[in-house]
Amino acid sequence: MSTVLLATDADRVHNEVEAALSGDHDLVRVHAGAAVLDAVTEHDPALVVLDLQIGNMGGMAACLDLRLEQRAERIPDQRIVMLLDRVADEWLAGQAEADAWLVKPIDPLALQRMVDEVLAGKSA
User: pLDDT for 70-83, tens place per residue?
Assistant: First the structure.
């Protein structure tokens, strides 16, 4: 089983992602965007799922932080999926270099399929 790191402070989002992925993946959750980098170092996840709206450091900032750290070769390459609030946020997710994104509400089958594709090396 691969590890998936989820960054969200919303219990509803956590529950939906857990329901969609728990059978095939071990889910590790952090409640703050600022905790993502340390969690990546500690857990070495196969995939990072970032909620756009996280209280202290949003998903976009966390995604950019991971990409900068990876370019500086301080962490290995990361596969990142973003959970967006609206279709208009897709442009931002692309600019932050997320591998893929899904607009909430979360469709469990679409999330499973997207996770499988990103883990197989396919991007949005």
Answer: 999 999 999 999 99
- The pTM score is 0.95
Structural domain including 58 reads 2-115
Dihedral sign, Cα of residue 19, residue 49, residue 121, residue 25: negative
Three-state secondary-structure class, residue 86: coil
Q: At 63, which CATH number?
A: 3.40.50.2300
CB 59, CB 14: distance < 8 Å = no
Beta strand 2-7 with 25-30 is: parallel
* Cβ-proximal residues to 46 (8 Å cutoff; 6+ apart), any chain: 2, 3, 4, 25, 79, 119
| Bridge partner list, 51 | 83
Strand-pairing partners, residue 2, are 25
Residue 70 lies in a domain: yes
Total domains in the fold of the chain: 1
For residue 24, give the amino acid letter: D
In a domain, 97, yes or no: yes
